């Protein structure tokens, strides 16, 4: 089946989707994106994703005229047009067309794409048994503003991910140039110590993840202390449990890093509680899908 893609106000078959070769997103990775998923036709925290996209567009001076409400409407329209309920959704916004000189103002219209595909099911084992990670050889700069945005220049993340998988691990964890914990290649990181939930602060040089935000809000609702701060690697190994968050996969128990067990080496009590509350929140809303 051929799926339809939304490109700059029009729906086209994927095989007919085209863009200009001098688009700066293609030439230099100058652009931003968001990935999310839908559950039974409901897109979890779509507004949060779109707000982050628009904040990044403003930061990178990417001209864009659609409002948050208009973008949300088009995302749902793309989902429904493709007759999908459980889907992988990606929004892409490029910076425009290359003017021929680096540093010069960009010309032409920004490329705006909404793409949806069937979501491949994830193995239950990653939730019941947990995942294993390794530290990436790449260090993140906490002073770089770019790491706080989802940019099309995703090479570091992909390299770290491939590096980890080549060693038999499922995720790579970045340290920053100060030696503190950052995040995973496609995840945010949390540790739990004596029922206290701790996550690296935004000033550590991390992406303000949407599921990270959801977990912090769930902790507040459950009266669990959740602290954002600089976290040393040794705190990870002294933790009772740890977990990773991602908009596609939700909450993933982290049981081992570089062959060292975290806590008892299995999904912890607090992690399992948060997983249940996260799922409960999604399912309660997915029962009432929003069709715009």
Query: Could you give the count of β-strands?
Result: 15
**Spans with pLDDT under 50 lasting ≥5 residues?**
none
Instruction: Write down the CATH topology of the largest domain.
Output: D-amino Acid Aminotransferase, Chain A, domain 2
Q: How far is the first residue's CA from the last residue's CA?
A: 24 Å
Shape: globular
β-sheet strand percentage: 25-35%
Report the sheet with the most strands, covering strand number, pairing sense and barrel closure: 9 strands, mixed
CATH architecture of the largest domain: Alpha-Beta Barrel
What is the total domain count? 2
- What is the fourth-level CATH superfamily of the largest domain? D-amino Acid Aminotransferase, subunit A, domain 2
Q: How would you classify the helix and strand content by structural class?
A: alpha+beta
Helices and strands, in order, run as: EEHEEHHEEHEHEEEEHEHEEEH
Instruction: Specify the number of helices.
Output: 8
Q: What is the class of the largest domain in the CATH system?
A: Alpha Beta
User: Helix share of residues?
Assistant: 25-40%
**Mean pLDDT across all residues, rounded?**
93
Q: Radius of gyration from the CA trace?
A: 19 Å
Compose a concise summary of this entry.
By secondary structure, the protein is of the alpha+beta class. It is built from 8 helices and 15 strands. The protein folds into 2 domains: 4-118, Aminotransferase class 4, branched-chain amino acid transferase, N-terminal domain (D-amino Acid Aminotransferase, Chain A, domain 1, 2-Layer Sandwich), CATH 3.30.470.10; 125-283, D-amino Acid Aminotransferase, Chain A, domain 2.
